[in-house]
Amino acid sequence: MSSNQLHNDDSILEDLAPEVDRDLHSKHVRGTALLWLIMTVGGVLCGIYLTPRLMPHMFAKEGRDAVLTVQVFTVVAAPVAALVCAVALYSLLHTRHRASLEHPPKDGKPLRGNALASGAWLIVSTLLVVFLLFWGLTEWSAQQVVHADSLTVNVVGNQWVWDFEIPAQKVRLEGDKSLIITKAISMSQLNLPIDVPVTFNVTSKDVTHGFWPVNLGIQVDANPRATTTVHATPDRLGKFVVRCSQLCGLNHAYMYTEANIVSDSTFEAWVAGGATKPIGSLIAKGAA
Amino acid sequence: MMSTALLEDTVLSPTAGRLYRRQNALTGLLFGVGLAVLGWFIALNTVQSNENFGSDMTVAVTMTCWVIGFNIGIGTFNAVFAWVLGHDQSREDELYGAGVSQGRSRYFKYCTDHKVVGTQYLILVFVLFFVGGTLAMMIRTQLLTPNSSFLSPQTYNAVVSIHGMCMIIATIIMVSGPFANFIMPIMIGAKDMAFPRLNAMSFWVVVSAVPPLLATFFVGGVNAGWTTYAPLSVQDGPAMICFAITIITFVVSVTVAGINTLITVLTMRAKGMTFSRMPIFVWASVIGGGLGLYAMPAFLLAMTLMVADKATGTSFFVADQGGSGWLWENVFWIMGHPEVYVILIPPVGALMEVLSTFSRKPVFAYKMIIGAMTGVAGLSIMVWAHHMFTTGWAPDLAGPFMLTTELISIPTGIIFLAAIGTLWRGSNWVRLPMYFGFLFIWNFIVGGVTGIYLSDVPADNYFHGNMFVTAHFHYTLLGGAMIAATAGLCYWFPKVTGRMLDERVGRWAFWLIAIGFQVTYMAQFYEGFKGMPRRVANYDPVFRPENLVSSIGAYVLMAGWVVLLYALVSSWRNGAIAPANPWSAKSLEWHTETPVPLENFLQDPLVINDPYGYGGVASEQIHAVFGAHAHHGANNGDHTS
């Protein structure tokens, strides 16, 4: 039978074993290790240089935390993912059975397991998980620290607009300056002074929405009859978009508005002017 | 020794099967529609007048009547009625029920033969994937341009919701339906499933669940996504009722099927088929089915309460009346996360069979794979709130849920280890199933690595609710589970259909699928990195190029599936006749005739080794012996384990 012939052809190499088996074996290991090294380096470089370029400029530490996490996790995952891909690719490149696809090739080595490989794999993956957890918890708990004198902003989700309100309060600006807001300010855009810690109290008038000031890197749902809280300190001048991240019905796609992070003086001027003018016009003036 | 006469050639008396003789899919349809019309008429003249809930109640009554009527018409309740009336089924009735003397018409009947049920499931899965895929094409067409008006926002939301649920149903049954029914009992040397009538029931019940799902489009559409978060879903029209009836019916089917799988493996194994000799796919079917028994009832409960909220004015999930949307989210994800692994574990089991057979090697670390699948299943019931990191519900639980979620990557890693350990120094016979095997490994690595970003709360606060999540779960469920299931399909196709699959056309399909998939979802990862929210009908023009690329990729992907479907259908009709064991594989399904006879084996198997003796010494090479060595009649109830 032709399959037997094939087996014979195929097995010439293998029949030289066991003397050269060790060499062959290390040849396989070397080939795979080379692939692994190339892929790991590729993955690490992607993690360090590519991922931050895929994400927008962040306006708060929370956002930069997210970017850094993606970088670090990519670097950490790269060697493991590369090993899986390297073995798969090596076995693909090293396909020995090309003569005929009609018949099964000779059996491979009956490796039913390897305590060393399995043990090492378990230990390494456990250590990686411990690292991921440590990383996540450290970042998360640092983000949970609430500044005692933060600016309170009430956020209300409606189908399908965001409403913001800065209640009457004393706002501590940079350098022990303070700004007293005597009357609650309602706004349809999120206007905030730079470098002032903000506490967002978020709720909804109808269904669940997702409050997502994209470039701050924070997110919390707006639930009816409940108030959820989230914190961030915008530290970069400019504007970005506040979106809804929770499907909320017909015009979910259109539930977004602008956020403006402005300087102290612009913010003060805007409040002094009754907080009615579009803050954009003041930014131009402030810059001049 | 059994006589050479085949059971399926038995000549039955003209009354065998009694009522079943007059029942088929058409009578099911007639009874279903008939009872639905009757229910609708009664509801219209009674409950419809309730100004708050009238139309919801009417739809609830109509859809419930459809499901019950269809199942009466097809014969789901025959045996129960007959038993109550004191007419137990005779052997002839049972043979008729198993499809004897009915030719192809048995595929349209309440047939108890597990191979018929498996084939029926396979066709249903094709239909559901075709519907879900068509809806996906509508979504991607809408998203070709930023301000497209191809679909209205209302229709878009309805399409997104039903695409999701249709695919979830299809992927839950894509392996547990066709292969855990057709292949798994043969793999363990059983003559049929433990409960053949329940097996037929599980299929026809899920069939009856499909029309209400599609009916949603005609009664206003489901607006709230497949997750149907309350209170948005409670705002929805009667479509939400249809959706809930679909789920409730579907859960009945999955539960019945899961129990059947468990009991079959526990009690129907051939002599010598000890637990440590069972193929990995059997283990995967048991673990997936068992996990379904935990997960799916929560869905039934949630949807029952949802129907109550909508149709009777209770307020489990309505915050304005003392309920809580968070309650819905919790119950939903207590189902929803284990469900991911109900989908994933059986295809991974199938994949292990493929990798072993085509590497011509034993599966690597057999016992660790079983431990890993069990560990994944166990952990998966404790991770549900990672879907709720950004909801504001219990922020102090972020840490614990981050822990359980990240722990899952340890057993998942072992499955990767087993996959590459099986490939390592294997012979790599690159037939079509193996193509999909390699594709699975790549896709699942990408899905896994992107999953660890999402498990991290600070990173999730950026990615949650955006296209990154969409891309991630498509990499795991479509690129992972569905590609592994496709590997399994190509592997078992010769056994199921008796024909060889046309691999030349199949390879074309493979390349279209492989490339189309990467383009589609890599573009969506990029959208997610840039901050595009998911489930939007229109989007900011800054996301234009990547959406265009993603849509083009999606068309290529769909073209690939259509080509694969063509290969499957044409090979099924005209392919080369398949030998019994085209892959020279060792597990039992390859060591019985093709087509597989009724009750599966002409001579009972006696299992002496696990089915992975490739490359081993002669005594390990043989999985089972037949006939003279095996004690006849040892199949039902008499086991060594």
What does this 3D model show about the protein?
With 288 residues, chain A is α+β, with helices and mostly antiparallel strands. Chain A is 44% helix and 22% strand. Chain A is built from six helices and twelve strands. Chain A has a five-stranded mixed β-sheet with strand order 5-2-1-7-10, with no helix packed on it. A five-stranded mixed β-sheet of chain A has the order 6-12-11-8-9. Chain A has a two-stranded antiparallel ribbon with strand order 3-4. In chain A, helix 3 runs antiparallel to helix 4 (115-143) and helix 5 (264-272) crosses helix 6. The N and C termini of chain A lie far apart (90 Å). The radius of gyration of chain B is 25 Å and the shape is globular. The chains are: A alpha+beta (288), B mainly alpha (641).
What is the name of the CATH architecture of the largest domain in chain A? Sandwich
> Unreliable segments of chain B (pLDDT under 50, ≥5 consecutive)?
632-641
> Helical percent range of chain B?
55-70%
CATH class of the largest domain in chain B equals Mainly Alpha
Mean pLDDT of chain A: 88
Question: Structural class of the secondary elements of chain B?
Answer: mainly alpha
Strand order of the largest sheet of chain A: 5-2-1-7-10
Main sheet of chain B, how many strands, which sense, barrel? 2 strands, antiparallel
Rounded radius of gyration of chain A (Å): 30 Å
Under CATH, the topology of the largest domain in chain B can be stated as Cytochrome C Oxidase, Chain A
